[in-house]
Amino acid sequence: VSALTAQRHNERIREGIISPKAHVNQLNKHASKVDLAWLVKWFTKLAVETGEVVPVRVHTQRKVDGVAKKYYSSDKYIMPPPYFTWERLY
């Protein structure tokens, strides 16, 4: 893929012209089997027990009166370890 093609697609995504349709897990059998409330509790417990505190900087950009303004926020998040597998979720 050429650089111009990638740039064009990135611009379309930023403008919201290309976006995936929300399927709300109607046809996704694997996602519909996961108990979401249990999953949130499990991730929270995992992060507290074995996670690391990581400083995270979030960048957002909003247009106000046609002028793009950049906002930065910093916070410390607890990140779960990367070595857990999907077998734990089912």
Summarize, please.
This protein has 90 residues and is an alpha+beta fold. The protein contains 3 helices and 2 strands; from the N terminus they run H-H-H-E-E.
Overview of the molecule:
The chain has three helices and two strands; from the N terminus they run H-H-H-E-E. It is α+β, with helices and mostly antiparallel strands. The radius of gyration is 19 Å and the shape is extended. It has a two-stranded antiparallel sheet with strand order 1-2. It starts with a helix and ends in an 11-residue tail after the last strand. The protein has helices at residues 3-15, 29-33, 36-50; strands spanning 52-64, 67-79. Helices cover 37% and strands 29% of the residues. The chain has one domain.
